[in-house]
Specification:
With 427 residues, the protein is an alpha/beta fold. It is 33% helix and 18% strand. The strands form three sheets. It has a six-stranded parallel sheet, with helices on both faces.
């Protein structure tokens, strides 16, 4: 997929050997580049024994000679070690999407790239857009932050539509991103352990529009103060401002971005009725407002993908009589923004490194309790919900999972398995 000659005789560093890092290595390894690999996780290094000849701690990399550096999006580049070396030696930062964009339109036909970013709703919007286009018979590919490395996709034709979900970290690493259609859904406080302010976070998000030209489209949802700011910026592209959606029906949660979906599909030549049909058939994402199981009185909702306060507040607004399980790694976000006064919130069960902080913020009337692990919290919530005549046991942490789990998926799977076991024991 890439121009391998460009990397011949170059020195390349890849930090992080998850699926994205592996895809970068597998691509560049077809060139004559000298590649240095590392992952701080010993278990991951042991799993990737085929890379042993390339594995070398970043302290031992020849930074003064390194031409390209591909860090995992989860790596904090503001650490002193990286700041010093990157600034001193002017190594070029890259991402897997950088490689894809280098090749798109030169090594293979450009097709149409739809890049979607925002604090919340990226995965749902990208997936729904993908499914609607697929059902309409279009040649469409989905990749990016959603968990599918873009370098794992086969190059398409001039008719191919590539949908990429992009985090702020990926945008920051991809200076050459040039989507024909760029979408900004919303901006609320998140990742402030990595970004110095919400303004910096906003400015990075807005870079998704930087390289577009007058034939391209910039779609911005006027959802909040920060997107409103971006909507007033000057772009070379055709700027389309989408009014905030007021849909808050629990059963139609995914209608939240209906207006933006219609606009993207209109640009791509898909009729409006396909949107409504697509939403009707959309089953939703795992770990996002997912109804795991229920009996006559209690339902378990897995919203483990809610890793910031605004996502959790939305979950509060969509459920009643909530026995909430929250907490984790706050990522530097202001946890006082969690709506702990919500009339829908019955009781509070807390886990993770931010548990005590949320406990201190929670009104005594909600009877907050801190637990050592998720399973204990689930069992306690179930016991209290049963005593209270029922309700919704909601895992919507408002925090990252990385203090206790490998991912939000692992956290959600533990919640779901435990919930199913408790419901099964009743029968």
């Amino acid at each position: 997929m890439i121009d391998y000659n460009k990397y011949n005789s170059k020195k390349v560093g890849i930090l992080g050997l998850g699926i994205t890092g592996q895809s970068i290595f597998n691509s560049l390894n077809q060139s004559d580049a000298e590649i240095f690999l590392w992952d701080d996780n010993l278990a991951i290094r042991k799993e990737n024994i085929c890379y042993q000849g390339n594995l070398k701690n970043t302290n031992d990399w020849p930074w003064e000679e390194l031409d390209y550096f591909f860090p995992s999006p989860g790596i904090n580049l503001k650490q002193e070690f990286f700041v010093k070396n990157l600034k001193k030696y002017k190594t070029k930062l890259m991402s897997d999407i950088s490689l894809f964009e280098d090749a798109r339109g030169s090594i293979f036909p450009s097709g149409t790239l739809v890049a979607i970013t925002g604090t919340n709703g990226k995965s749902s919007t990208a997936t729904m857009l993908y499914e609607i286009l697929k059902n309409e018979g279009r040649d469409v590919r989905l990749a990016g932050n959603i968990g599918i490395p873009i370098l794992s996709l086969k190059p398409g034709t001039s008719e191919t539509i590539y949908i990429i979900e992009m985090s702020s970290f990926q945008i920051e690493l991809t200076e050459n991103i040039k989507p024909e259609i760029a979408v900004l859904l919303n901006i609320s406080q998140d990742h402030l352990d990595r970004h110095s302010s919400i303004e910096e976070y906003r400015d990075i998000k807005s870079r998704i529009f930087t390289n577009q030209n007058s034939n391209h489209f910039s779609l911005i949802c006027d959802e909040d103060e920060q997107t409103n700011f971006v909507s007033k910026m000057e772009f070379k592209s055709k700027k389309i401002i989408i009014e905030k959606s007021n849909n808050r029906d629990e059963k139609e949660y995914y209608y939240k971005n209906l207006n933006i979906l219609k606009e993207v599909l209109k640009i791509l030549g898909i009729p409006d009725f396909s949107v409504n049909r697509g939403i009707k058939n959309f089953r939703g994402l795992r770990h996002r407002m997912e109804l795991v199981c229920q009996n006559d009185k209690i339902k378990f909702v897995n919203d483990s993908k809610a890793t910031n306060t605004s996502a959790t507040n939305l979950a509060f607004s969509l459920n009643k009589k909530i026995f909430w399980i929250g907490g984790g790694d706050s990522k530097g976000n202001d946890l006082s923004k969690i709506n702990l006064l919500s009339e829908n919130l019955e009781r509070v069960f807390l886990i993770g490194s931010s548990a005590q902080k949320i406990f201190n913020l929670t009104p005594k009337s909600k009877k907050p309790i801190v637990f050592e692990n998720l399973i204990s919290a689930i069992k306690a919530a179930y016991k209290e919900a049963s005593k209270s005549g029922g309700g919704c046991i909601l895992l919507s942490p408002g925090c990252s999972s990385h203090d206790q789990f490998l991912s939000y998926e692992e956290r959600g799977e533990i919640f779901s398995k435990t919930a199913l076991s408790l419901i099964t024991l009743e029968k």
